[in-house]
Give the backbone structure.
Amino acid sequence: MMSDWIEVGTLNDIPKLGARVVQRAEGDIAVFRTADDKIFALRDKCPHKGGQLSQGIVHGDRVACPMHDWKIGLENGIAIAPDEGCAASFPIKMEGEKIMLSLTPNEGCPNK
Amino acid sequence: MKEKLVVIGNGMAGIRTIEELLKIDDERYDITVFGAEPYGNYNRIMLSPVLAGDKTIDEIMLNDMQWYKDNNVTLHSGKEVTSIDRVNRKVITDDGTEEAYDRLLIATGSDPFIIPVPGNDLDGVIAFRDIKDVDVMIAAAKEHKHAVVIGGGLLGLEAANGLMQQGMSVTVVHLMDKLMERQMDGPAAAMLRESLEERGLHFLMEAETESIIGKDRVEKVRFKDGSEIYADLVVMAVGIKPNIKLAKEAGIHCERGIVVNDTLQTYDPTIYSVGECAQHRGIAYGLVAPLFEMAKVCANHLAKMGIGRYEGTMTSTKLKVTGIDLFSAGDFTGDETTDELVFQDKARGVYRKIIVKDNKILGAVMYGDTIDGTWYFDLMRDETDISEFRETLLFGQAHLGDSGHGDDNRVAAMSDNAEICGCNGVTKGEIVNAITVNKIFTLDEVRAHTKASSSCGSCTGLVEALMSHTLGGEYSTAPHLKPMCGCTDKSHDTVREAIETQEFKSVRTVMDAMEWKTPDGCSKCRPAINYYLVCKFPELNLDDSQSRFINERAHANIQGDGTYSVIPRMWGGMTTPQELRAVADAAEKFKLKTVHVTGGQRIGLYGLKKEELPAIWNDLNKAGMVSGHAYGKALRTVKTCVGKEWCRFGTQDSTGLGIKLEKMSWGSWMPHKFKMAASGCPRNCAEATIKDYGVVCVDSGYEIHVGGNGGIKVRATDLLCNVETEEEVLEYSAAYIQLYREEAHYLERTAPWIERMGLNHIKEALVDNSARRKELAERFNYSQTFMQDDPWEERAKGGEAHEFTPIKVMG
């Protein structure tokens, strides 16, 4: 399903150590930017109580959920131990200035 | 070669002995432990809270498997020792394993006593002794309704309470005419029964069980008088008997328990026994405190130091049922040679009886308010002469000296050898020593170092008071070692000092210069550093929005469902028809489900989508309303009463004062949220004495109160001083806020800050030193010149748009 890549904006649209939201009927996707300009996309829903990860504090390759401070790995969406759970991750890449996001989540996490 | 120590019994007594031994000598023995249960060592006395759902099994584990590994202790769990070969000095297990010993420790504990009645082996008839029993009870509660607990003693009542918490209808059957007759006298037992009945427990007193009836599973319990009750679960909690089978078969002298001497040796001097299976000077104990004392002495002797002697334990009892406080110790019945001091207030549910002979306490029973239990117990053990304060003895320790400030004064008044933790026999001196020598700061660390408060937890309040007394009182000399978070070894104070002296100007430079271990810090340290920078350099606008929690970044409160709430400022709790109309219009326009009047006299609008925030702010701004900072570590509200303008009791214009206070201090970022109030008279309708800064107007002027706190841990304010004019109230307020801003750790409310620094410290800075006060107030007012821009207005005009709009909206 290569057809579902969409353009969501440019790197400058997202603050460093911040996130923006792609709104979808099927559930929002959070797009993160780290200090070294890596980008990641996760389902915007913490595995714990459904908090919006896009509203959390980004640090390293993690985000701290704003609800109860669970830490979620940006790379794969998996909660950092001792917490358990995951938020689905989505393929994302840069094409020139553009951020391209696939709407087909990576395998392995039921929290889509 | 090392000697071999074999321990039979992997319970609290055996393992505590090993721990004590390893503390003084970890070289002497190869240690092997046999335990029948398939777990590490857990805190058996906490099974009741597990049953009641207050704790989990994991929380009551004392030594997990890793502990045995780390300490080179071999554990055979799930293996039962079946015989002791004293001639060849070895033990033999059910699977044929043989283990030789040089010294043997028998810590087999006790078995529950099962009443010898027909049907006691039916399914659903159990004791209350181990994790397995708790599992059975929790499972039964899911499927069945009626539980009968036989035994109205300590254990039976805890079991009954737990089963009730699990949803069962519970009847307690007791042979005697009063509950806990071994610990309580008549009035206390009656009060206990009444309050347990209020909670929903049923009691059958003076009932002797004749048989338990059922096909496969229990169905009924029948009593001697012929009556019957339904039962799907029967728990027998009528007592314990020391488990002495092994010792007896090996020819070791036993009576009720395994007889031991003052060094915990049995009649075979290579064999020791501790805990509930041992009988010392005629007594087999069933409580935890003696067992720990035995462990200490036994370990000492095993290490061949031979200086300790166990001379018996004076025990006290507390019931671990949440919300019911009772305490008993020593001889609480007395006789014709003793005096009885009694205090009883049935309506308040308070009862105290103290038995005194020759001005010494022999025993005590308390129900309801048991806070002085430890004190009476100390007086009793030390055989203190009480004639000096006999007339106020019943009113407790707080009545000894000044009017009493709760636990703090109480721990200060205690002697160094006063026992704080009854379970583990830890004294005030040992805890204070651990705090100062090991430089520890948290309850967990005190638990790890001393074991105080780690068993039943009922002394936690005292331990905390002791910590705050020890650390708070000597604050200036206390080391600042506690790191801000896992990203660094640096403490809050160290980081702040570095920001001041080295003039760091960004979160990043602070983390780089101070060798942070993580690339970008975390959600604990970054907001803290950001605050310290903003506080130090107000004029430079250093605020890093990505280091702020979402509420402060979005200037609204995120709610559980991901929507936001908005609370505009209403100065001093005053509003106008125009403002109310604007609020009503906004609520309708944005179709808000909830409009709520807050505890701080403001109106909260709930259920806004993040994208809608700038628009509603725009509407509110038009009516002259600005951000109420209900989302911030900042001034929240100034609550007022209407004061002398309307109230016939009012002494000053509290509303006007509240407005002035709020106008002066809104917009300032602080370590934590900050609430104020101004009451027009000492009736204090604005509840100023639970605020961070509270003013109570009096005829002669104003009382200034500081450091109050509602919330989880209520703290009433301390009186800072009295002043005569509004100008002084405002100056004190500015100075106090600035001192708090400059000294408190991020996320530390004023209450813990004052407790940490001591009220005198605050008084010295603000009351005793008017020059310092003026400087602080000036710094605050200077900082405010940069802070008082309405963040809503800026964003309503399009600022920070990326924060409030999705990067993309899909069709």
Summary: The first strand of chain A starts at residue 5 and ends at 10. The radius of gyration of chain A is 13 Å. Chain A touches chain B through 34 residues (CB under 8 Å). The mean pLDDT of chain A is 92.
